[in-house]
Amino acid sequence: MTDILKTLAVDVHCDQCGDFTVGADVVAESQRLLAEGCPGSAHECPPTLLATLLPQAALESLESAWSALEGAARSPVERVTIEESPHVSTRLAGPLEPRTRWEDDGGSVSIGPRSV
Fold it and tell me: In the chain, where are the structural domains located?
């Protein structure tokens, strides 16, 4: 059985930590820790933050649906997997820096338009 939550990632913006990605399995674990009364570590983003990133009921529904899908697969299906799709960020990490040349251009320096 595939742990579906290990295949999901959540991109998060934090004003203190910066942008980061956390697995849905970490969110679910934080929810479990809080439910058991554990406050978590003071050296990491606290479970009280991580547990709020995704609704617990939605995570549980996803796990249940995935389990049902895997269980319903019939021959000749050997297993059901999730293929990782390319992750393309639409956010810039910071301001663009002007460059005089591209790093992979073989060292050539672009020359502006010429007049004849």
Answer: 4-72
